[in-house]
């Protein structure tokens, strides 16, 4: 039976833990700890090592989902978690100051990984005042001749997370044909 | 930057406890208090180490260690220990939101490291509000 390892990354509070919790068939592994820095005003707990969940696709393939911590000080975990991964989901939170820059930062930090695999971008809280539109995200990618799937998602909804996973699988199939 | 601020007096107090711990074993060359979410609070190193990087890594390690223990149906994780060719790194929770880490060379006696880390943590916990 095929096993697929996918990574979910993105800014702190973007919904990585929530997405894995929403879709995992088993109780997810979570490493949440109390937030003690400036993030505490918006989030009482944060992932400090990894999240892990699993689900089974219709064809019987197992998907293992690994969530990274969002803060840059945990960059070492991004590299550890990415090992052996087949694809990346980047969640971008539109309530943050500069969501387009957030997207760029995660794409840049995972650029080697993305070069060998595939990536899908999930835009969360897109109804926030002043949030960039999906076109803004596409345009930012096109400025540097990149084109990746971008979806407006609610990470609390299993169907939305499933949509991201299916887009990632389709993208992988496309790049390997 | 951590919002857990123990002030200069608190840091001086911690460093005095660190000195006491180091005086009990010459093999100990680094002691660090960080937050559970990976921010540095106070450290005392005898060699050049990155307290920022170590704080983040040790926060991850303690969280993983505690989770692995729970997954294996073991309770009350006391220490997470990394034993290496060159020495040891002991990490334990200090109060609710802090992490105490002790770094020692391979000349250390692991039993002594256990006791000085535990005793140091108790002393620090009683003094830190």
UniProtKB/TrEMBL annotation, chain A:
InterPro entries: Gliding_Motility_GTPase, Gpn, P-loop_NTPase. The keyword Nucleus does not apply. Keywords: GTP-binding, Hydrolase, Nucleotide-binding. GO terms for molecular function: GTP binding; hydrolase activity. The keyword GTP-binding applies. Pfam families: ATP_bind_1. Belongs to the GPN-loop GTPase family. This is GTP-binding protein. It comes from Halospina denitrificans.
Automatic annotation (TrEMBL), chain B:
Residues 14-104 form the Roadblock/LAMTOR2 domain. InterPro entries: Roadblock/LAMTOR2_dom. This is Roadblock/LAMTOR2 domain-containing protein. Gene3D superfamilies: Dynein light chain 2a, cytoplasmic.
